[in-house]
Structures are given as C-alpha cells and as structure tokens.
Write a structure and sequence with these properties.
five-stranded antiparallel β-sheet, HIT-like, alpha+beta, HIT family, subunit A, 3 helices
C-alpha cells in the first residue's frame, strides 16, 4: 500500500520522502510518527498508508487496523513515557481543526500542568429542547446503521 496524493505531507511521510520525520512504527497499512510541532512530548500521529481524507471515507478494515495500532501505540507511550493520562483525538473537517486532510489519530500523552490545557469547555448552555431535538435526529439516523456483521 502506498499513499497516492503527491501534495499531501502525510503521503510524503508514507513514501519516506521526509528526512526530518521521527517515525516510531510502520507496517503494511499504517505509519506512526511524531508531528513536527507536538502538543506534548511523545505526541504521536497514526495514519493509514493509503490516502484517506477523513473518517467519512474510511473503510471498516482500515479502521480496524488503525484502531489496533492506535491502541498499541497508546500502550507503548504509557510504558515508555509514563504520562499521567492520554488523549486519543481524531478530527474531521475545518470546524474540528483538521489541518492535514489525510486521516490521522493523535495519541497525546498528558501530564498535569502541560501546555495543552483542557480540551472540553467547562460548561455548555444547551436547552433541554435542543438536546432532545439532537437526540431524536441522531436516534433516527442510528436506526439506519446495519448490524456490525453485515
């Protein structure tokens, strides 16, 4: 498998065309490496070797392997770096702060007082009606999801 977008910086890493990358893992489906500007020390990205823009273009087999390797990298981070916690982050689209449109999972070791700070708002102000409307819309959409063995 090779990444096919010549303009994608992550495809360049897959092709081993980036001499500055700090790669930590590679197999026939994924590559894991440090981003050039990590949020914390040990911050690692796990990407599919095929160019997949976002989660909506992700197939089940690639998702399964990406999840398996993300879990393995998380355990390796815990063993090697002994963080106080860990975030797994996967963002899709500009509104969600995706800046490289090649699917990637952030494995971010966290330490009390690190520079990353809190990632959730301290509180929100949605009305019960707004929550009910969103719940009903999502419930209807979820009823269309095929069983996992389909």
């Amino acid at each position: 498998m090779t990444a096919g977008n010549p303009d994608c910086p992550f495809c360049r890493i897959v092709r081993e065309d980036d001499p500055n990358v700090r790669e930590v893992y590679r197999d026939d489906q994924v590559v894991a490496f440090f981003p050039p500007e990590p949020a914390t020390l040990g911050h690692t990205l796990v990407i599919p070797r095929n160019h997949i823009a976002d989660i909506w273009a992700l197939d089940r087999d690639t998702a399964t392997h990406l999840t398996h390797v993300s879990l393995a990298i998380s355990r390796a981070v815990r063993s090697a770096l002994r963080p106080d916690g860990l975030n797994l982050i996967q963002s899709n689209g500009n509104a969600a702060t995706q800046t490289v449109f090649h699917l990637h999972v952030h494995v971010v070791p966290r330490r009390f007082g690190d520079e990353m700070g809190h990632i959730w708002p301290p509180q929100t102000h949605y009305s019960e009606h707004q929550k009910d409307v969103a719940w009903e819309q999502l419930l209807r959409a979820c009823k269309q999801i095929p069983a996992a063995d389909d």
